[in-house]
Amino acid sequence: MHSENRTKYVQKLWEVWKTAARLGLVSFGGPVAHLGYFREEYVKRKQWIDEKTYADLVALCQLLPGPASSQVGIGIGFLRAGMLGAVAAWLGFTLPSALILLLFAYFSAEVPIDWLHGLLVVAVAVVAHAVWGMAKVFAPDRSRATIAVASAILSFSIPNAGGQVAIIIVAGMIGSFLYRHHSRTAVLSVPAFPRKTAGVLLIFFMLLGLLPIVARLTSSPFIALFDSFYRAGALVFGGGHVVLPLLQSEVVPKGWVTDNQFLAGYGMAQAVPGPLFTFATYVGMASFGWKGAIVATIAIFLPSFLLVIGTLPFWEWIRQHSRFQAAFHGIHAAVVGLLLAALYHPVWTKAIQTPADFCLALAAFCLLTVWKCPPLVVVIISAMIGALI
């Protein structure tokens, strides 16, 4: 009987991985589109969870730092098949785009420089599109718009990862005061989750505090790489686009990649399905080869595992805590400001060098926002036109 149970569990894990891998191959369009794909597959077709549980899981993951769509997938895998199910769901959804970006980093030296410049230019349009969309959602009123603008200005005064973290913390404090009486949308309660999983939150905070110390005490570039990407995954609010300013301030000054390499990889990351956080795979590969790709990819997604699994038992408390909810109004507004600053530097300053570059970026922005073209199509068109001009 024990053998039969084990066989059934292995089959369940295989089904989780296979389903997530199929989603990882076809999920173009960013995190909002990913959540639509997930609902269609996991809720309506597979019926692994019901609408109520899915809605609550999405709400929780949108409050947490990290890639919301990947976190929802991890949560569904955990509910379906425990910790190994969470790993299987993450691997399946992440591997397709990670492998594509790894190969791009490996062969990018052979890609004509004109094509790479087209990727730099399309990054302007993509980030501008992200700023525009996020500003409408996260900075719709005067106070949050002011927080966003102030965050953008301050990010140039303290242009490092520590400064960005400080800006986010202060914005959260301001938000917790300004929006403490802000009405909240009612959220349905999730099933009871095992309290023993809450212990992983301790691991999350221990790694966040100890990794910088270990990186300074050792000379290992891989520990330094793990520290940088773990911190990025742990402190990025608002989705994959927001990882751009934090990672740029981490990896470019250290000489791991150049600004042009960084932005070319970011532009390419828009063209592939799956989570944008697999951009870490590209940077790791470009910096330290395949070992760096593995280290960076695991490091940037590990906080998502620890946060989702660790906070599930406390979701009911988080849902009802008004100060906690209010803080995120300020945090998300600050995120818009940080991304706005990144739109200027390094994205704009590195990519827009001639009037033709500006025209190409404007056309790409129009394709994304007005014509609603898939990012893959816009990236290919921009790369080709970049080669011509």
Automatic annotation (TrEMBL):
Coiled coil: none annotated. Its main location: membrane. It is a multi-pass membrane protein. It is found in: Cell membrane. GO terms for cellular component: plasma membrane. One of its GO terms (molecular function) is chromate transmembrane transporter activity. The keyword Transmembrane applies. It comes from the Bacteria. Keywords: Cell membrane, Membrane, Transmembrane, Transmembrane helix. InterPro entries: Chr_Tranpt_l_chain (IPR014047), Chromate_transpt (IPR003370). The keyword Cell membrane applies. Pfam families: Chromate_transp. The chain crosses the membrane at residues 87-109, 115-135, 147-178, 198-217, 229-247, 293-315, 327-348, 360-388. Belongs to the chromate ion transporter (CHR) (TC 2.A.51) family. This is Chromate transporter. It comes from Anoxybacillus gonensis.
